[in-house]
Specification:
The protein has 272 residues and is mainly α. The protein contains 16 helices and no strands. The chain is elongated, with a radius of gyration of 26 Å.
Amino acid sequence: MELSIGASIKALRKEKDLTQEQLAELFGVSFQAVSKWETGAAYPDIEMLPGIARFFGVTTDALLGVDVSRTDEMIREIHDEAARLFEARDYAAALPLLRKAAAQYPMNEELQYCLAWALRGSCKADMAYEDEAACILEKLRGNAKSTALRMKAARDLVNCYYTKNDIPGAAGCAGQLPAFEVCREYTLGRSNILEGRALVDHLKSCVGLFGGAVIECLEYFASEKLNGRLFTKEQAGELTVAAAREKIALVKQVLGGEPSLPPPTRFSAYET
């Protein structure tokens, strides 16, 4: 990204009718330093940028000459391309794209999250990617500004730590996730906030989502492999393989076919 901070400082200085010497005195630097800023021969120390921006009454983005609208557009384009590659499970192509984007926009947490996805998708090629992804997700889980992003990072870390055979770590992340009765879908569905078409569409979505979740749970009982590996038939009790399969068929019948439930690792660039 090409910075035009020198031109910005020069224009703002002239607006305030200040000389280079006067501006230099205000910020405790030499007038030669100000001259170098304005010609692009050097940049102010990064610690000075907020103070300079406040003095001129502009944002740091404006001071740096960043076109915020164009930056947002470019980031969205990267998200869209990453989403397309993830849908195609082409993680090999997504990884270099997102490494470059995350380096170019290091403060964009969504891009960091996307990079973690690309790393996790590529971990079969190199298991070191799993550790790198976990490091990114841990930072997001603890520091992301968005609550939704912190929860998504915790959710993904459950699977990440399980893959690394860190069961306590996976359980700890799972414990941070909200309980079903306080989730967004259930709360909106049972409240009177929505009405009309909005309520109908939301309830239909919940029927598919929760119906699909019920099927996923029942599949553990219906699978001879999972049934025998994770728990015994005695522990399963009345939910025998045959009974579980019967219930799955019933739920599918109620739903009118296969539920449209995305798998836990499905990528959504603007999921909220």
